[in-house]
Amino acid sequence: MKRTIKNKNKQIVKENMGRKKLKLKRIESLKERSSKFSKRKKGLFKKAEEVALLCDSDIMLIVVSPTEKPTVFNTRSRSFHTILERFCMLSLQEREERCDLSYFYIIIT
After folding, report:
1. Quick check: 70 and 64 in contact, CB under 8 A?
2. pLDDT tens digits for 62-90?
3. How many domains does the chain divide into?
4. Distance (Å, rounded) from C-alpha 66 to C-alpha 16?
5. What is its main location (predicted)?
6. pLDDT tens-digit readout, 3-42
7. Is residue 3 part of a domain?
8. Fewest CB atoms within 10 A around its CB: which of 25, 58, 76, 88?
9. 22 in a domain, yes or no?
10. Do the domain assignments include residue 88?
11. Is 18 part of a structural domain of the chain?
12. Closest listed residue to residue 42, CA positions, set 19, 63, 56, 15
């Protein structure tokens, strides 16, 4: 991405690097992995809250940490049990489809 900055008699072209794509690989150190997980979890919950607000939807996330500690996050005022009951009312096939990422990619394409 290039941007041009005009400064009196000079024209400067700056090239921005933008964000680099990270190479994803498992973090070997449990301490580092737990720290990174904690930071990423906060970001994930923040994004879930934004989507719920913008789209007027209920979102529930169950996240299990590297130390096997589960955290449940749900948006708005609905309880965990209310959202889970709505999911359980779906047929078995619908539940499996909604838990399978390949179904997600079929909808997008």
Report:
1. yes
2. 899 999 999 988 887 667 788 888 888 98
3. 1
4. 36
5. nucleus
6. 655 666 666 656 666 777 878 888 999 999 999 999 999 9
7. no
8. 25
9. no
10. yes
11. no
12. 63
DSSP reduced 3-state for 52: helix
What CATH number is associated with residue 100? 3.40.1810.10
Give the residue among 37, 86, 40 at the shortest CA–CA distance from 59: 86
Taken in order 38, 41, 47, 51, the sign of the CA dihedral is negative
Strand pairing of 70-74 and 10-15? unpaired
Domain extent for 83: 29-108
- Write the CB contacts of 67 (distance below 8 Å, at least 6 apart in sequence): 30, 34
